[in-house]
Prior knowledge:
The structure holds two protein chains of two kinds.
Chain A: H1 24-29, E1 35-38, E2 42-43, H2 47-57, E3 63-66, E4 69-70, E5 81-83, H3 89-95, H4 104-111, E6 119-120, E7 131-134, E8 156-157, E9 161-165, E10 172-176, E11 179-180, E12 186-188, H5 196-206, E13 211-217, H6 221-227, H7 238-245, E14 250-254, E15 258-264, E16 269-275, E17 280-283, E18 286-287, E19 293-294, E20 297-309, E21 315-317, H8 323-342, E22 348-352, E23 361-366, H9 373-382, E24 389-394, H10 402-412, H11 415-418, E25 419-426, E26 440-447, H12 469-484
Parallel strand pairs in A: 1-3, 2-4, 5-21, 6-14, 23-24, 24-26
Antiparallel strand pairs in A: 3-5, 7-20, 8-11, 9-10, 9-13, 12-20, 13-16, 14-15, 16-20, 17-20, 18-19, 22-23, 25-26
Helix pairs in contact in A: 4-8, 6-7, 8-9
Chain B: E1 11-14, E2 17-21, E3 28-30, E4 44-45, E5 52-53, H1 59-63
Antiparallel strand pairs in B: 1-2, 2-3, 4-5
The complex binds zinc ion.
Zinc ion is lined by residues 22, 24-25, 27, 46, 48-49, 51 of chain B.
Amino acid sequence: MPPEPRPAAAGAAVERHACARPSLRAWLAGLGPALLQIDEPLPVRHHLTALQHALEKAGRHPVISVRHPLLPDGRDSPIPVLTNLTASRSLVAGALGLADHRIAGEALARAAKGGCPPVVVDRASAPIAEVVETGSAIDLSGLPATVQHALDPGPYLTAAHATTRDPETGIDNTAIQRCWIRSPTRMTWYPYPSSHNARNLRRHWDRGQPCPVAFWIGHHPAVVIGAQAKLAYPQSHWEAAGAAAGAPLRLTPTFSFGEALLVPADAEIVIEGLAHPHDLGADGPFGEYTGYMGPQIIAPMVEVLAITRRHDALFHDYGSGLADMLVPENMAMEGKLFALAAAVAPSLQAVHVPVSGRRFHAWLALSDPGPGEARDALAAVLAWRRLKLAAAFDADVDVFDEAQVLWAIATRVQWHRDIFRLDGLSTSTLDPSLAAGARTTSKVGIDATLPLADGAGVRPVPPAAVSPPEARAAADDLLRRLRAAGRLEGAPCL
Amino acid sequence: MPVTPVAEPVHEKRGNCLWAICPACRTRFPIGAALAEPHATVPAICPACHHPFHPGRPAREERSTP
Ligand SMILES: [Zn+2]
């Protein structure tokens, strides 16, 4: 199997956006053929997510724009739905200004260190304030929120960024958290119990106060990804979002809470509301990153006070548990794992958290690791909560090509010699393989690096069977011409 | 382990998964432990028919609620 050339990760340029005012629509305008426009009416109940699954099965990951979403009650929605914004590694890398998705680990590990402070603009210059709906004009059920999977109980906001504020310090927090639309003015909101938004909520409730919350939907993917940075508490996410987008994020006061709660001025839709003390309801089941349905749980309810939006607003939907959701989070995880492993393994070249392993697998590439270095790197990344399996490879294996990963595991590993297991480590309780009540998990490291080269630089294993470079280049060229002529369309798959 | 004598249970445990069973339409769906507490104040909601019910209470009692 011929190894693909890798881009140089070390010192690779991270080009910043020239875009001074990042927004979802500005990004869409530059997508070209990566945008799949669906012109026929498409039901948001099940059909849109089914299309995402079908495209994923076909190995295609375009951004999907549905111009005429059909609501569950049969109405046409005038608000288009955008989904699959972040289903492709190369699109996400482009949105983040990275030259290649394979350097995400190293680039994001470096980017985590810097911030870009936001600016506050008045509502008159905020597109998000063009339309304000209050009182009887509020209608959550008019939004083209998707019903994604068979056991989902109803339409969900899946890409709503919930922004709350710590009542003690006034510092805001932002995270994407799902909401089940229960009526025109009420919805659930699920901040994970350990999340910073849940902490802000409890701090309000402990004071006997309702928790103000603003859900903003639709922004440049770099803002969306940057805003999801894992930070300390309390710490605002605006600087990380600005750093990812390469421009200060423009914020504006909310209609209901004014300067006490700011939202991105260039988003598409904002839903403002109150979570009243101990007003709770059932939420879920809901499709999770594991590919299984997560259980129905108890979540706060939100009373909606206002919906504000652009006059021609777009609605962003995340395919839950699909590549759309896994790709950006896994790339962010690559940044975390790169930092952990590089601290003990200077030969680290790249980290891949593949969508196939959900968030449980990581593949590391090392260049001539010294004695024990591959195992050091594996032990370091296995400390990361969700990881269950990490494998280390020599840099001739393209860890972004899973056929090569499995080839190397098949041909470079002696199980008695090259694996180690760590038991009793923390884990995600959503892992269906856990025993009932278990709170910890077992993890495995695989050292698939080859034995060290001898003094003459020759490894004690046979050379890989590859074509010479000039023949490979000629074959690539022929393939390009055959593809352009449509001659490969009937060619059978493996 | 005490057994509650009801004809049709409204929740059951299989492996590491807790299932609620809708008394109205018999749809099974996974639930978290808090919803299956006998004294839970928040009802589960069937994802198929939206019937609210308390999976932690015996089915007979559950059926008498509107
Ligand atoms: Zn039911």
